[in-house]
Every structure is written in C-alpha cells, then in structure tokens.
Amino acid sequence: xxxxxxxxxxxxxxxxxxxxxxxxxxxxxxxxxxxxxxxxxxxxxxxxxxxxxxxxxxxxxxxxxxxxxxxxxxxxxxxxxxxxxxxxxxxxxxxxxxxxxxxxxxxxxxxxxxxxxxxxxxxxxxxxxxxxxxxxxxxxxxxxxxxxxxxxxxxxxxxxxxxxxxxxxxxxxxxxxxxxxxxxxxxxxxxxxxxxxxxxxxxxxxxxxxxxxxxxxxxxxxxxxxxxxxxxxxxxxxxxxxxxxxxxxxxxxxxxxxxxxxxxxxx
Amino acid sequence: xxxxxxxxxxxxxxxxxxxxxxxxxxxxxxxxxxxxxxxxxxxxxxxxxxxxxxxxxxxxxxxxxxxxxxxxxxxxxxxxxxxxxxxxxxxxxxxxxxxxxxxxxxxxxxxxxxxxxxxxxxxxxxxxxxxxxxxxxxxxxxxxxxxxxxxxxxxxxxxxxxxxxxxxxxxxxxxxxxxxxxxxxxxxxxxxxxxxxxxxxxxxxxxxxxxxxxxxxxxxxxxxxxxxxxxxxxxxxxxxxxxxxxxxxxxxxxxxxxxxxxxxxxxxxxxxxxxxxxxxxxxxxxxxxxxxxxxxxxxxxxxxxxxxxxxxxxxxxxxxxxxxxxxxxxxxxxxxxxxxxxxxxxxxxxxx
Amino acid sequence: xxxxxxxxxxxxxxxxxxxxxxxxxxxxxxxxxxxxxxxxxxxxxxxxxxxxxxxxxxxxxxxxxxxxxxxxxxxxxxxxxxxxxxxxxxxxxxxxxxxxxxxxxxxxxxxxxxxxxxxxxxxxxxxxxxxxxxxxxxxxxxxxxxxxxxxxxxxxxxxxxxxxxxxxxxxxxxxxxxxxxxxxxxxxxxxxxxxxxxxxxxxxxxxxxxxxxxxxxxxxxxxxxxxxxxxxxxxxxxxxxxxxxxxxxxxxxx
Lengths: 267, 352, 254
Ligand SMILES: Nc1ncnc2c1ncn2[C@@H]1O[C@H](COP(=O)(O)OP(=O)(O)O)[C@@H](O)[C@H]1O
Ligand SMILES: [Mg+2]
Description:
The complex is a heterotrimer of chains A (267), B (352) and C (254).
Chain A (H helix, E strand, L loop, with lengths): L2 E14 L2 E14 L3 E5 L6 H9 L6 E6 L2 E2 L7 E4 L12 H13 L5 H11 L15 H14 L4 E5 L7 H18 L2 E5 L3 H7 L2 E6 L2 E7 L11 H17 L19
Parallel strand pairs in A: 3-8, 3-9, 6-7, 7-8
Antiparallel strand pairs in A: 1-2, 1-4, 4-5, 9-10
Helix pairs in contact in A: 2-3, 2-4, 3-4
Chain B lengths: L1 H25 L6 H11 L2 E6 L6 H10 L7 E6 L3 H9 L5 E4 L1 H9 L4 E7 L5 E4 L16 E3 L5 H13 L10 E3 L2 H9 L6 E4 L3 H6 L5 E5 H5 L6 E6 H6 L1 H20 L1 H12 L3 H8 L17 H6 L16 H7 L8 H4 L5
Parallel strand pairs in B: 1-2, 6-7, 6-8
Antiparallel strand pairs in B: 3-10, 4-10, 5-8, 5-9
Chain C lengths: L1 H24 L9 H10 L1 H34 L2 H14 L8 H8 L3 H25 L3 H9 L4 H12 L1 H26 L8 H10 L3 H29 L1 H4 L5
The structure holds adenosine-5'-diphosphate (ADP) and magnesium ion.
Magnesium ion binds next to helix 1 of chain A.
C-alpha cells in the first residue's frame, strides 16, 4: 500500500511570552493510504499539537510534513479536522446547508450539491435531518453531521481530535459502528486522537503512543474486524497497550483530556 | 403570553395615571385656598424676572446692581434662562412673572394664548443685516448657497427679513432656506471667521463689532424694513401677576423707568459699572452705549406694526384688534386715543 | 406583529387617558394640547413632517453606514493584533460614556454649521457602541467554527464575510440596535440644540421650529412621530430580522 502522510522530524515549540513550551519534539511516522491510525497518550503530551501541525493550523519549528509527497504549508480541505467540541457546525445553517456550504467553498462549482449533501447525511445515519438547525440535534448527531460535512469535501486524510470525547458511552458505541462502516465505504485515511485505549483498539489498525511531546512507540493491532470485546485476544492486546502506556508514561498521571487547547484567533 | 402582556399594559397605565395625578397635584389648581392666599401675600413683595445678557439689557443690569425696586417694597428674583423659547415656556407654566422679548416672539406667544401683556417698551436699537461678501449689496443678491444667521425662527430679525422680502421680492419666505438659527455670539463668531455664514442679522454690540471690520456692510436696516422705529424688546408681565399684585406691578414698572432714566443720565457711570460684567474696556462700552441710533426708553414703539404682516405670512393666526389686547393700562394711557384720527404716538405703533 | 398591534392599542388607550385628564383639569392648550389638536397638527403639517422625517432617516442612514464601516474597520484592526486591541479598547472606554451631543460644539468648530456637523455627531454617537458589540461578537466566535472555515481554505476577507460575520451576527444585531437608537437620539438632540442649516433639517429641527413658534400641538406631533418611528423600526425591522436569524438559529444573546 502506498504512503499517504509522512511526518518527519516534526518539532513544535509554543512561545508564550518568555516561556517556551514543547508541543511535540522530533516526531517521525508514516500513514499508509486507507489506514486507520490512533494516537494515544496522557493529557498534554502533544496529540492535538501534532494534529494541528498536520492540518496546517500551526507552523512547525522544524521538520517536514508531506501529503502524497507534497509539503503541507497551510490548512486545506485535503486534510480535514474534526474537533471534540460540539460547536463546530455553523449554527446559522441547517445540516444540509452546512454541508453544501463546505462543498461550495471547496468545489466552487454549481453542481447539484443538495443531492450530494443528502447522500452524505444518509451515509452517517442522518437521513431526514437535513433541514434541522444544529441546536435541534443531540451531541452524537452533531458529531455525525460534522463527519458528513468533512467527508463531503472528499479529503484524503481525516484528522480527528477526540471527536467522541464529549459523548456518552451509549452514543459513542453507535457512532463507532457507523464510523467504521463509513471508513470502509469511503476508504478515507484516518488519524484519530483519543485518550481512551479501548476506543483506539476498537477502531484502528495501528496505535501510536505519545508521552511528553515524544512518540514512544507504535503498536500494530492484531485483531481482525469486526472486533469483539469478549475474546481473550482482545483482552490480552488491551493489557499490552496499557502496560506499554504505563511504562512509557512512568510518573505522569493519565488524566482526563481537556478539550482542544484554545487556538490563536488569526486569519 | 397574552395575559402577561395585558398585565404589563395595565401596569404601565397605572404608572401613567399615578404620574399625572402627581403632576396635577403639583399644579396650583388643586392647592388649598389658604395656601394660595399665603403665597399671594408673599408674592406681593416679590417678582420673578428673567434676566438676559447683552448690551441692550444694560438698564436691566443697572436696575439689578443699584436696585431700583426695593424702595417701592419690591424684591426682584432674577432668573437666568436659556433661550427666548424657554422664557415663554416658563411664563406659560407660571414659573416667571416678567420677561423681555422682541415684539414678534411675544405675538407668537400671545397668538397661542400666552396669558401676558406688554408692560413697557424696552429700548430702540439698530437691528441690521450685515454681510461681508462684496457681491451681496441688497437682500436680492443672496444665492441659495448663502447662509444667513438669525437668532431663531420667529425672532424679530427673522420677521424683519421676511417683511423686507415681501416688500422687495414679493415672497416673505424667499430666503427661509438660507436661514441658520444661531445665537448672537455664535453668529458673530461665524461672521468674523467668515465661516459658514455670509450674513448675520444682529444687534449691538455684535452689530458694532462686525461693522468695525473692513468690508462688512449693512445690507438691510431694520428700521427701513419696518418703516419706522420699533422697540427692540418689550417687557411683558403675566396676567396673573398683573391682576393679583397691582402694587408689585406698579413698583416694577416704576423701577424699570427709573433704571432706564438713570442710564440715560449717567452713561459714564453705567459704563464703569458694567464694564467688568461685559469684560470689555470701559471706553469701548461707553462708545457702544452712546452710539448713534441707540435709545434707552420705555416708551412703546411699533407694538401693533408686526401683527398684520405676521398673520399674512402665516406666523400667527389672529391679530390684536386693539392695543388693549396686548398691552397693560399704563401703556394704553401713554399712547392715548385721539378723537377724530390717530395722534403721533398712536401712529408710531404701526409700521409704514 | 401582535406585539406591534399591542403597542398601537396602548398608544390609543394612553391618548384617551390623556384627553380625560386634560378635560378634567381644564388645562390650557399651550401646556396640554388635546389629542384632537395634535391630530390636526399632524394632518395639516403632513407634508412638512414627511419631508423632515425622510431627511432625518436619510441623514441617520448615512451616519449609520459610515459608523458601521468605521466600526468594522476598527474591529478588524483591533482583532489583528494585541497592540491595536488595547488601543481600541482604551479608546472605547474613554469615548463610550461621552454623549454624542456633548461633542456638538467641537463638531461645529471642525465642520461648521450644517449637515456635516450633525453627521459627525451621529457617527460619533453610533460608532462606539457598534465597535463594542462587533468586537465582543468577533471575540466570542467559537474557535472551532473559525478553524472549520480555515480548513475549507477560507482566509482573510472571505473568512470574515462567510464565517465571522454570521457567527458574530447576534452581537452585530444588538450593536446595530444600540447604534440605531444612539444615532436617532443624536440626530434629534443635535438639531434640537443647534437647529439646522437652512431648509435642510429633520425632525429635531421640526421640534425646534415648533417650539419657537410656540405651537405645542406641533411639538407633540413631532414627538409622536419620533416615538412611532422608533417603534416601527424596532418591530418591523429589528424584530423581523431577529426572528429570521438569531431566534431561528437559537444563538440569541440576552
Ligand atoms: N496555543 C498554545 N500555546 C502554548 N502552549 C500550548 C498551546 N497549545 C498547546 N500547548 C502546550 O503544548 C503541550 C501539548 O498540548 P496538546 O497538544 O494540546 O496536548 P494534548 O492534546 O495531548 O493534550 C501542552 O503542554 C500544552 O500546554
Ligand atoms: Mg488535545
């Protein structure tokens, strides 16, 4: 399989006044086309920073990121970000309009966006909700709609920063199943950030473990799909990942993740 | 929702009613008889006069400084109010007994039912339209872009300009769109800076100051417009004060006469007394006080002459039929009523 | 709309009470003009009132447009850097409490007597609350929405128009409300204090003239028009826009 995303020697240092904070340091990895990669690690280890660098929201201090061999310099619809927050849909537009808006900005054409938008809503299980405004939806539905909007511009890479972190266990289960189907159907490549080990195991082909701004290791997921939780292989893999995390993150607590760090207002 | 709205409306209505009851409670109508009597008694010795500032008010300022009233047992409460409009409103609200204003503003108030009449004439002074633009020699020379400053709509200056326009152009409102309402000092400032306005209808001392500048000339003389002399101001006294305080009324008129006469007899002392008030040199003030055309007098001039024109031009809706409609008995007695045709004093109440 | 009708009904009821009080007290027309005489003044002066109203609306419209453009510029400048943000917020703190009418003397010195001075007062009165609301609005745009916009490839002017503007619309709307109210008040107050230049004047100038002519019914007629326009703009424009936008989106701010 071909190599879609290459991250080499990426370093990002935040400078707030005189203080310098390391976001991520010397990160190297590749993601193959069509793969589903998870990144896990304790809070503050640089997961969001890395994703934001790939998305082009942050300038890196060192290193190179390339997508299909082309260097990443600024945000673009070929890498689409989905955030944890439930406020990423535009509240002044209906769900369908949100999707049409995105397609129109990216394609600039005059195609039949309406029909396509409906198809994407159906894809994420929101058929019939096109005329709803975001305030009329539950958290899970909002995230589904965000996924539909992201897919509608046909990105090569989906960057998901704890997209289901604000959902209850119930809707999270449902959305996992839906999302896996969509992933398989569309063949989109996914980099998925989470602090939930089980979520990473359930969804991804490979797990990257981060700690204190560094990539500590990458673990291939041996489980076949669809994944079942009540088999010994699952439990032993879970144990393996947990142990690795405990080892690597020696001394640093595994905390609940805060939502994405406030990005700088700039345009 | 519906009910809530209703409640709110009722609440607002209640507040309105409450307010109006308080309002009417404050008015004299609902006062107890005894209270009115007591107030009237006290009023016997006091009179509320609106004070004004300006060269033409020199006799009034002298009257205040030297106090020509107390020997008649009258105490004057001097009030300083904003514009001529405020003075009339204060009179209508019975907050003021005496005011000084031009004959046209008084007629506008009289027309609307302001319960007050003329108790004395107040000076005859030049009122002139000054312009500095050399292309403007008469009032026919104004172009639409030329702005003319007058103190306010309905002021004596405004009416004089309209009268002249009626005579010479046929349309009293021909220059209405050129008028700018500016108080005298602001108008003079604009004129001296040659900014915004090209002409100013004004009175001493602003008139003198403007005429001292090279190139500034009179394009319309107020006496020409009117046809003869007229009081620049008249002193008006409210009906209620006149009727309820005859002694106070008489004392005020007599005190004013004395002050007026004192100024005429003592111009140098007047200049000395008032120079600090006007913040100009004594010599300059004396020059203004003794300038040609300035007449410190309480005699009535031109009281009836504005009304016909003002009605015709739509400023008022009725005209006084006889002098007694607008003047108190002391004025009527001065003017007299000659059998078999008007006497000179009667004639000078009209315009020519 | 029902709210609007209620306001009208309320005015009618108030008129009846007004008339009852006037008749009961026997007040002179000069102080307490009857509803009838106010109605007559409204009718006989209708042409003058309409032209004065149009003039007022025109000059306020012009002033508001200038103020909105300035406020937008000020807002863009202040969100493009911390340094500018401090300057603008400081300026706002100094200027916001200053009533527009208080700068009339300065306006006359700078712009002379005429429309320009009144326009200046209107712009000055409206621009500070506008900047205040716009700035707050832009600052309160959810970061995620901005980044979705940037992610789609929007930047600069396009991002501002397509994302920032609608995202901050609730604040912009309440800014426009305040700006309109301040501009309306300023135009009436300025003309009431200093009159108007020549034949060009609005409702403030109408009140001024009526006052100097002691036509109390005319003064009340002018006031009534001012109130009615305020109500009409609120109910026919702002409430309508609000219903179609922020109320529909449930992004209304209190
Ligand atoms: N905009 C920023 N300015 C300064 N420091 C930041 C900023 N964003 C993140 N950081 C810091 O960088 C480090 C990594 O943060 P982040 O990437 O958000 O971690 P994670 O997403 O894994 O919790 C943290 O120490 C955080 O405080
Ligand atoms: Mg994070």
